[in-house]
Amino acid sequence: MAKLKTSAQEMVAAARTRIEEIETADLIARLDDPDLVVVDIRDVRERQRSGFIPGSVHAPRGMIEFWVDPDSPYNKEVFADPSKSYVFHCASGWRSALTVATLQDMGFEAAHLKEGFSTWEAQGGPVEMPEKKG
Questions:
Q1: How many angstroms separate the first and last alpha carbons of the chain?
Q2: Is the Cβ–Cβ distance between 111 and 86 less than 8 Å?
Q3: Are 86 and 39 in contact (CB under 8 A)?
């Protein structure tokens, strides 16, 4: 295979130079803020396996641009309030960095959790597990 023009790692690094990154401890401290919306873009299987931030909105990475766009037939109301602060996260901060850079290009302001969910619990962040289906 030929070398890519831009690697995924280079794309993430470029995105991180122009977006707001939130440290884990800072997001934990803000969890009670009623104007904060935490958006989990991980795959549903990741959420089932490792849990999620209580109160977070699940928005799969593959649909996020469509869910945020008010002109899209897939638009979700949760993204319609300009007074809210949105912080996106994935497992390690790579997917969320690319997501926030893309949303910023669209005109949607957001930040992302720098280290992702990977350090969340170890730094004292609350984790909720999904209900077992039986």
A1: 45
A2: yes
A3: yes
- Per-residue tokens: 110: 């957001």
Q: 87 exposed, middle or buried (CB, 10 Å; 0-12, 13-18, 19+)?
A: buried
Q: Please compute the mean of the pLDDT values over residues 71-77 and round it to a whole number.
A: 97
Please say whether the beta carbons of 100 and 41 come within 8 A. no
Measure Cα distances from 35 to 71, 76, 121 in Å: 23, 17, 23
Q: b or e along 107-124 (b: 16 or more beta carbons within 10 Å of the residue's beta carbon)?
A: ebebbbbbbbbebbeeee
pTM, two decimal places: 0.94
Q: Give start and end residues of each alpha helix (H) in the chain.
A: 8-16, 24-30, 44-50, 64-68, 94-106
pLDDT (tens digit, 9 = 90+) per residue, 14-51?
999 999 999 999 999 999 999 999 999 999 999 999 99
Q: How confident is the model at residue 13 (pLDDT cuts 50, 70, 90)?
A: very high
